[in-house]
Structure formats: structure tokens, C-alpha cells
Design brief:
By secondary structure, this protein is mainly β. It has one domain: Galactose-binding domain-like (Jelly Rolls), CATH 2.60.120.260. The chain is built from no helices and six strands. The strands form two sheets. A four-stranded antiparallel β-sheet has the order 2-5-3-4, with no helix packed on it. Strands 1-6 form a two-stranded antiparallel sheet. The chain is globular and about 40 Å long.
């Protein structure tokens, strides 16, 4: 989710891994939710926009182990209080050892806010997102 800011707080955070870290162009600083599911990270695009994909990244450092995160991509237009699915819940594999620190999730819709809703992460007790 390279556009916009993660201005609306995430559903939760761990330590200093706050929502703004998910979109700060620095993979060393990332967002991580507290343990437990579901948890979410929302990015405000500012205005309604056609959304064709969501790019979710993790730190590419080899110290990070391979992991699978289960999440869905939701969106809502300006003035709405309801998020709708832009991409169904699915498993997404990340593995820095094979240079796969990002996934591109095809989506289709128009939204002013995009939300990742996490349901599982095989490498951590909550959802994780970085950006670079």
C-alpha cells in the first residue's frame, strides 16, 4: 500500500512498531500488531481512488525467517463507515531467503481507505507490514 499514510491507528501495536512505520520507506521500521487476531492496519488515501493492487512488504533482511500471513484487503469510499472486501482472505508467503519479501495482491475497487485485516502469521503472534 504505497500511497497515503497510516494515519488511523492500527488495531494494536507492539513496542515501537507503530502504524506509521508501515509506510515510512524504511524496512527496518515496521508495524507489528499485538498478539491475537484479527488485527488490522488502515491506510487513508485521502480521496476516493481506483485501487488495482495492494503491495505488502516485510524486511528483506535474511535474519527474518520465512512466514505466511493470512489476510484480506478491504476498502471503503469517502463518507462510508463500512469496509467491503477488495480481495478475499488468503495465505501470502514471505521469504527473504528467496528474495520474496513482498506480495502483490490484485484488488478491484474504489476506496479512500484501504485496510489489511490479518488472521494469522506463522512467524509472529500478530500481523506485520514494512515498506521500502
Amino acid at each position: 500500500m504505497p500511497l497515503g499514510e497510516a494515519r488511523e491507528p492500527a488495531s494494536s501495536t507492539v513496542h515501537s512498531f507503530v502504524a506509521a512505520n508501515a509506510n515510512d520507506n524504511n524496512t527496518a521500521t515496521y508495524w507489528e500488531s499485538a498478539a491475537g487476531y484479527p488485527n488490522a492496519l488502515t491506510v487513508k488515501l485521502g480521496v476516493d481512488a481506483d485501487v488495482g493492487s495492494a503491495i505488502v512488504k516485510l524486511d528483506p533482511d535474511a535474519i527474518w525467517g520465512a512466514r505466511t500471513q493470512n489476510f484480506e484487503v478491504l476498502g471503503r469510499p469517502q463518507g462510508s463507515t463500512v469496509f467491503t472486501a477488495l480481495s478475499a482472505r488468503a495465505d501470502h508467503r514471505f521469504d527473504p531467503a528467496t528474495n520474496q519479501n513482498s506480495v502483490v495482491v490484485p484488488v478491484s475497487g474504489r476506496a479512500a481507505e484501504v485496510r489489511l485485516q490479518f488472521f494469522a502469521n506463522s512467524g509472529a503472534p500478530g500481523g506485520q507490514v514494512s515498506r521500502k
